[in-house]
Amino acid sequence: MKAFYLVLFAPFVSFALLALWPGLRRSGKPAAWTSIAAVAVSLLSAIALFFQYDGGVHEVRWVWIPLAHFPSLTVGFLVDGLSVVMALVVALVAFAVQVYSLGYMSEEPPASLGRYYTYHSLFTFSMLGLVFANNLLEAYIFWELVGACSYLLIGFWFYKPSAARAALKAFWTTRLGDVGFALGIAVLFAHFGFLSYDKLFALEPSHALFLGLLGVYVGAMGKSAQFPLHIWLPDAMEGPTPVSALIHAATMVAAGVFLMVRLMPALQHTPELLHLVLWIGAITAFLAATMALVERDIKRVLAFSTISQLGYMMAAVGALSAGAAFFHLFTHAFFKALLFLAAGSVIHAMHTNDMFAMGGLARPMRWTMILFLVGALALAGMPPLSGYFSKDEILVATAHAPVPFALLMITVFLTAFYMFRAFFLTFTGEPRNPESHPHESPVVMLWPMGVLAILAAVAGFFGSTVHEMLNHSLGFESLHSGEEHHPAWIPYLGLGLGLLGILVAWMGYARRIFRPERVYAAFYPLAKVLEERYFIDHIFLLLYWLGYNTVATVVGFVDRYIVDGVVNFVTWATFEVGKALRRFHNGVVQDILLGVVVGFLILAFFATGF
Amino acid sequence: MNLLSVFLLSPFIGAVLLFFIPRGSRTLIRLVALLSALPPLALSVYLPFVYDTARGGFQFLGEIPLLPELGIAYLVGVDGISIALLFLTAVIYLTAIFTSWRIQTRDKEFFIYLALLVTGVFGVFVSLDLFLFFLFYELAVLPMYLLIGIWGSTKEIPGRGVFGWTYEALKVGTKEYGAMKLTLYLLVGSAFILAGIFYLAVHGGSFSYLALQQSLDLPPDVARVLFLVFYVGFGVLAGIWPFHTWSPDGHAAAPAAGSMMHAGVLMKLGAYGVLRVGFGLLPEAGAALAWLVGTIAVINILYGAFGAGWQDDIKYLIAYSSVSHMGVVMLGMATLTEPGVAGSVYQMVSHGIMTGLLFTIVNLVYHKTHVREISRMGGLAHFQPVLATAFVVAGMTSLGLPGLSGFVAEFLVFLGAFTSQHPWWAVPAIVGALLTSIYVLRAARNIFFGPAPVHAVEDAQGSEVVSIVCLVATLVLLGVVPRFLLDSLQPTVVEFLKLFGG
Question: How far is CA A198 from CA A50, A324, A482, A579, in A?
Fold first, then answer.
């Protein structure tokens, strides 16, 4: 089990090297290779760890903050089935993305490229730290660190005002959720006095447990972009595309789901909370898919799709099926990272994100087209690709709750539709922009995609392995569908709706059997609401203006002109009184004598008793 | 010769030597200042390792009677709390010298005042005799008047509102105004403290902190009044609301090293005074009035965080963030819980280093661009990558990012608040961290991000980079290895809380 130290600390060493050695960082390519070498070590160790893993739970811990009246706060690492599988996913996607970035970011100046890989190393380390954390405090520590890396990487092109803005939006929104996370931790610590997973899992149901986990869930809502805290994720696409693939599709945004899966043994005692998780998950899945229908930006389609799929995972958590949630997280990491990288390949060639300026790319970019198609089919849940298996498990798991189930079923159709709308708009038809000269991406970008495509295709067959690994960590059956007899038609309905979605997209965008523009015009008000993302962003903007800026103006003004105004008035008045009194001290003997006489008379007046 | 005397003698001898160095020897002046900063730093790093936690209490005691008939002595000693603050002071002193390396006007006097000021600060943290304590306290406060008045920077703040007409008469915003305001406020505070100390000494029969802790037995009403006297007296320097308005004007007008010293270290003298003299000598009164201290602290946190959001002047913004973060310090001690008080002291150190870094950065930005208004900046990261990186790191510290010192401090205070008798304090405390992320990162964006400015500006150079690197390294050290200070601080806090029956 010693391999996990290499898994975790190899990226840290690379980060430390790049951060502390400016010469290496500014050299560009050598910096990139340092980071890639580190993540390769991490990946190989993660593979070794996976095969060495013996089904047990291995833990190390140290005192981080000593306390006497409370148990000391510790940090430590937990190697069990869940963390081993998750670490493998993280290391794999991180490796693929870092190699791909060599091609994608090749036009960056060396210093900038070094900075890019420095952030990447820090992110990979933090994400793995979150995976191996053995208590909630440590999870929170790495949780915040991945958030900061996300901020840095979204705002990587800091000279673009939109990127700088998106970075802020992402950080603030997730931090809003983290207020809940921190409060949740405080509730758990104040009531039970510990935060380590093994002790939390042994707790009996209680009100405090509910409140604590509710707080943690609010944090997970922020990170995993659950409605209504999903608003930051579409804007986060301002970052470089490989970043979107790694952080905003495969790993960090899935951290919320991961944490919920991790906490499942405790969550099962809070059925009310799980009910909420299920509903919000289903609503998120549905709303995000509808918003993807009218999106023009290829990356944002994928971003909405990510939100939607995270909704699926959360719904599975809410349905007490941690196994289905984690399995979907597992497969989604591969096919969504693949889709993002393929989209990046297109953007790299076209220098635009707008799908309506693309078209006909199947010929010049054959490999990218094939890879994108594999990802799209997997996402649409077409067998035997991975998405079919994992989505099916979620649908089965949620079958007992009619409304969420219906929402998720409709979303299956929507997902297939918007994905293939994107596919047909991008790759089929005639080129809509004659100015562009698209070319296939270099091999260094295609290979990582190829690896991910293979995994996206076959990951579905590892369902039993993933479930078995998860059962080791949870200590109970992770898949709850086994005990309920679910209707046999669910997989067929899901498949049928998926096919229907592809068909409709094909009719509208490939064959032009119907005109999508007319549909858009006919439902203009609805389409406008979707384009405006249900005005949720506006509500948050209003909150920001009223809740912060207006109060800040009032406080700032009051402080400077009222509180300080009083101070200045008192000071001024003191000066003035001083000036006035100065007249009596003019040093003229006659005036002084007059004062003596007047003083004497006044005293005499009082002394004689009026 | 007591080990702790190094803290006092080193900067003091430095100041005396500087006095005899001819004005033209610019390098020699700086080297002497630098040399006077190194022994205290070395000692303050050494102390946490040799402080005997098993024995506890004040250690490295030294006593030289000065006026035995009045019970006044040179009595020094340290515990975990003072060790942490000595470390803070030593780091800030060293980095303030590096930051001021390129100062042009009257550099000799500048470094003399700085050294004297530091002597006073070290004196406060080591002295266990209240008379000595007050002497050093005044020594620490007064040089700031000259530092701001001579080396400060000026701008006009037009008056508005009901009292607007007084602003022009007083020249609000000028360095003279800032220096005067700061000094007057602190002297009023000192008047309270002096009266309080004399009352204690007369009734306790001694100026010795150790003796007073044993012998002091005041009626509860008197004790409460006395506690309030100390709370207001020291609290002014800690920037408690509504006596905080000297801080933005003073810090904005002060030169870089002045703001670093003042916001970084001197404000902690106030908090330290409330903790040591207020809570430490009058525990019953302190416990009875903790609700007041905590509630005002909560106001500080939110008020400062909102006030910062309105500022367009970077120096004012950082100054308001100090008002907010000092609220965290005061809240931590008001919880009277182990994590809370430990977090309070940790926040003093963390905020000191962080705000020292922030003031270094904004002063460098100001000196290189000659602009203080955020609305007139943008894209500076193109030319000032070092400053931009450091600002983001410092900003992340202030909003409590794990891995940096602010998280340890704020998390402890937050846990303390939640386990105290007023769990609701935790909510504004954590909302304060959220608000911090709004104004700090917005400032980072508006100053450093965006398209490149038309005119190239210089990045931090040489000694300035040294200063920034030292401060960042300290933030990371304290964030990753909190036990460096907590191993001696935490037992002291536990012992301290025994006064409150904890």
Answer: 22, 22, 26, 74
- Residue A483's pLDDT band (boundaries 50, 70, 90)? very low
Burial environment of residue B26 by CB neighbours within 10 A (0 to 12, 13 to 18, 19 or more): middle
Q: Contacts of residue A152 in chain B, CB cutoff 8 Å?
A: 392
Q: What are A58's strand-pairing partners?
A: A79
Amino acid identity at B334: A
SS3 A11: helix
Residues present in chain B in total: 502
Tell me which residue of A553, A560, A569, A572 sits closest to B247, measured CA to CA: A560
Nearest by CB to B379, from A155, A159, A567: name it: A159
Structure tokens at A152: 């840095």
Token output for A497: 């709706």
Peptide bond into A22 cis (omega under 30): no
- Rounded to two decimals, the pTM is 0.93
ipTM value > 0.90 = yes
In chain B, domain spans? 5-498
Chain B residues within an 8 Å CB radius of A70? 338-339, 415, 419
Cβ–Cβ < 8 Å for B283, B500: yes
Q: How far apart are CA A333 and CA A338, in angstroms?
A: 8
Asked whether the beta carbons of B307 and B251 are under 8 A apart, the reply is no
Contact A32, A113 (CB under 8 A): yes
CB A460 within 8 A of CB A384: yes
Q: Does A550 touch chain B (CB under 8 A)?
A: no
Listed range (A14-23, A366-375, A432-441, B395-404) with the worst mean pLDDT: A432-441
Q: Which two tokens stand for residue A462?
A: 């590892």
| pLDDT, position B74 | 92
Strands (E), A336-414: none
CA atoms lying within 13 Å on the CB side of residue B27:
0
Element containing residue A464 per DSSP (H, E): helix A463-474
The residue among A484 and B327 whose pLDDT is bigger is B327
Instruction: At A500, list the tokens.
Output: 């229907």
Closest alpha carbon within chain A to B178:
A568
pLDDT tens per residue, range A24-54: 999 989 999 999 999 999 999 999 999 988 8
Is residue B466 exposed (0-12), middle (13-18) or buried (19+ Cβ within 10 Å)? middle
Phi and psi, residue A63, nearest 5°: -75, 130
Amino acid letter, residue A213: L
pLDDT at B307: 93
pLDDT higher than threshold 60 for residue A482: no
**Distance of residue A115 Cα from the nearest chain B Cα, in angstroms:** 11
Euclidean distance between CA atoms B286 and B284, whole angstroms: 5
Helices within A193-247 (DSSP H only): 197-201, 207-223, 232-235, 241-245
Residue of B165, B245, B412 to mutate, interface with A, max A Cβ within 10 Å: B245
Residue type, A42: S
Contact A372, A339 (CB under 8 A): yes
Is A142 in Cβ contact with B426 (below 8 Å)? Answer: no
Which residue of chain A is at minimal alpha-carbon distance from B180? A571
Query: Cβ A568–B307 below 8 Å, yes or no?
Result: no
Are A141 and A77 a contacting pair, CB within 8 Å?
no
Among A392, A369, A378, A388, smallest CA distance to A456 is for A378
Question: Could you give the 3-state DSSP secondary structure of residue A63?
Answer: strand
* Interface contact A559-B303, CB threshold 8 A: yes
Contact present, B267 and B261 (Cβ < 8 Å): no
Give the one of B160, B338, B401 whose C-beta lies nearest to A144's C-beta: B401
Six token digits for residue A577: 């009184």
Q: Is B115 exposed, middle or buried (0-12, 13-18, 19+ CB in 10 A)?
A: buried
E strand or H helix at B354 = helix B338-369
